[in-house]
Amino acid sequence: MRLLECNNVGVFRLTKDLIGENIPQYAILSHTWGEDVGEVTFEDLIKGTGESKAGYQKIRFCGSQATRDGLQYFWVDTCCIDKSSSAELQEAINSMFHWYRNAAKCYVYLSDVSRSAFDPSDEFSRPSWKLAFRKSRWFTRGWTLQELVAPASVEFFSKDWEKLGNKKSLEQLIHEITRIPVKALQGSPLSDFSITERMSWADKRETTRKEDMAYSLLGIFDVYMPLIYGEGRDKALARLREETLKGIKHEVPSVASSFSHATASDEDLLKLLRSAAQAAFNSHDKQHDPLCLPETRVEVLQQITAWADGRDERCIFLLSGMAGTGKSTIARTIARKYYDQNHLGASFFFSRGGGDVSNASKFFTSIAVQLAKKSLALNRYICEAIAKNSDITSQALRDQWNQLIFQPLSRIEAELVLSPLIFVIDALDECEGDEDIRAILQLFTEAKGLADIQLRVFITSRPESPIRLGFRDTPWIVYHDLVLHNVSPTIIDQDISIFLRHMFEKIKGEFEDLSEDWPGDEKISYLVKKASGLFIYAATVCRFIKDNEERSPQELLNLVMEGSEEQPHSEIPHRLATQALDKIYIQILQHSFKRVENKEKIAKSFRWIVGSITILFDPLSTLVLAKLLSEQKDTVTLRLRHLHSVLNIPKDQDHPVRLLHPSFRDFLLDRERCRDQHFWIDEKKAHESLAESCLRLMSNSLRSDICCLRAPGTLAREVENSKIEQCLSADLQYACRYWVQHLQRSESQLFDNDHVHKFLRKHFLHWLEALSLSGSMSDSVGMMKALQSMVPDKNSHLYNMVYDATRFILYNRSIIEEAPLQLYSAALIFAPKTSIVREQFLDQTPQWICRLPEVQKAWSSTVQTLEGHSNWVSAVAFSPDGRLLASASRDSTIRLWDASTGASRGTLEGHSSRVNAVAFSPDGQLLASASYDDTVRLWDASTGAPRGVLSTNGRIHNLSFSNDGSYIKTERGLLGLNYLQGSIDQPQSDFPSA
């Protein structure tokens, strides 16, 4: 190690190469390099030619500061290493962590931070250098990580050579910037921190040379390895991993995962996005779903393709219609057309009760995965977004849309992707959560802002209120709508007639005894009339006739025709529209029971098995369903044998059973429509019975360390899926994920010592472990909140336990999600002494924990800490219903949070300076924010969509809505809001000019 020696007259000279105990006390410089030609090198000092270089000022400063601190020697990386000697460079890089650790003082020179900058109008008199400090390039470089962590004494200096503070005085600020634990900054041994945690400190840092991303971490992991410049980043990190793994057994899986993440390929990055495999129109599960027949739906398809291919400014096409009018078939046809033309960007077909495709949790991530396969450029931009924010899957829809979809499409050049680019979204009304539906619609309207890509979003839906509300504030110039059941009845009847003739031709091909003209024009015309515009009626009739092996097609057709002259039993218009469909459903069910002897017993079995299929939140195979219901597989198979015309029952019993159409679910659950009470499903009772089955299965199957991982530090993501599926069967995973939802839908009430209370007292931790392993831990807080709402006695033992369990999850969620077995060690032993969960399960702590740590007596008043802003939070506001929390920050953003779970609901960006105040409107639909950029912005509180901007001619520090929401009150005056058809139109201000 060479040092620079400073004599009494401020002249520097290099010492000889010092070794071991001969090294005197010294100071050391940490900085970010400028241009190479501007830095003083070892050769410059030898030749005496470095004084004219810009970097010499840093050397002079370091020497002067060292002298002031009573130190004669100091070290600077640019000039104290002879880089022409590969041996010396190898030794220096492998020793550098120790050199920084042994330094008496470390001086950090921040060339992009100035203390002289000061904002006199800041009412808190906060020096603005702290904002520059947060954003300093020094915190983003790979080498400076060890230069921060290793030395005991670190002092920070501005570009003007003024001292800003030291590692101790700026401890909290540095922690917020780097996420390095305070204990690590205070000098705790790095061995106290897991390899995984130390690796995370370098996540967002960069180095100029790719290999240095590994070499800069040698000291952090206390390893030595030779340098091979030219080997590349991935190989260097792989070697670092191998060296780190030597002699470390308990953390091997964790270490391997951490390093593999650091070297992730694009394919690996895309795997981080949780997507729904069955979402696309051409997924394996949908491969046999029909398209529109030739010469059918001609007018509708022409309208859609003219919109998609033309220059119509409207970026959204909404096709709405009653259940059974053929929306999904049209959507599949459009998707297939543009897929074949290479213009389909993505498709997502929602399905109520379809698991991943029944909600929006994997909506934008699934679209992003499909988009990434569209072009190499899109793949690169999407993967860059994932690399920058690997947690994007769990973030708000707005953030997912912006980072994974909108920004990549904004960056791509038009010639790299065929334009127009089509998204096909089917059955949006079947997405759970009205707020998510509204958010999706509002976000898609932003597609109009894409400059180089013409993005077209085709959506189908029933005409449900969430859809209408989602477009309430959307100008007509953004979306085009077409109502299917308003299309000319003559055209629809003609299309249904073509469909029936096509299907009957196929049936004739399978039955040789049918006449050439079967079934005849008269019967086809009659069936067209009975269909009343519903394609699902025609399709169901054809399946019923085709898929029955016990009776001939003619007999079954006659059965369909029987009773057709009955008078309508309802005068409600939509009931009349479905009456023929209800009739065919009843006939199918009655026919399946025609030859049974004990009809009541069989009907009860039907309601149990088919009723469960109807209300499942995720479709299951016959094998899995039988296990969940504690039924024999043959019993389930027998009960479904004659229901192929209403259920999709795969030959492969490992594939899920699905309803062929949601109208069958609507029929079974509606007592007015399903008039044969043998088949009517009491939805509440069905949910209650299924919840009991889930609880019984979990009670019999769950246990500690169910996957036999043994090592408490094993991460959930390291466990092979095959291992999880072997130990957590599909029926058990379903029970763990959905038992609370079934209880909630049953509208049950819970009491002390009931089946739920007994389950929680015995299996609460086992259940959380299973959720973590199956990737569903994020649902746990919402499930516990739902349980709380079902306990009427707020003073009961059950309520207290559920409340305590909720606090336990909120406090430990991140560690449980990452390492499930930490439930029984860290999470349990650090819970407060009076925690019910701790008291109940303390006997399950590992035997190797000999002494319990001292912990607080009770949960603190802090329920949870919400992290995400990069600067101070200046204001917060709760929505009127208490469900949302808005936080305003000096980082110029507003964040929305779920007040119950703490989950991020989105980041609102638009202000160019810090945000001082936020307020919700009385109805909770609007959020107003005031900023130092002299504007007030209005946002849709549920979707985060911008709703208006007003210049205020001055800064606003406080604002609130009037009781009727017609204007905003501020200390500078009133801000009037004009409402036009439910939307804000040109907000008016009563502010005087400044």
From TrEMBL:
UniProt entry keywords in alphabetical sequence: Repeat, WD repeat
Gene3D superfamilies associated with the record: P-loop containing nucleotide triphosphate hydrolases, YVTN repeat-like/Quinoprotein amine dehydrogenase
SMART domains in the record: WD40
Record domain Nephrocystin 3-like N-terminal: where: 302-462
PROSITE patterns (alphabetical): WD_REPEATS_1, WD_REPEATS_2, WD_REPEATS_REGION
Domain Heterokaryon incompatibility: 26-117
InterPro entries attached to this UniProt entry: HET (IPR010730), NPHP3-like_N (IPR056884), P-loop_NTPase (IPR027417), WD40/YVTN_repeat-like_dom_sf (IPR015943), WD40_repeat_CS (IPR019775), WD40_repeat_dom_sf (IPR036322), WD40_rpt (IPR001680)
Start-end of each WD repeat: 866-907, 908-949
Repeat found in the keyword field: yes
Protein known as: Uncharacterized protein
Organism: Trichoglossum hirsutum
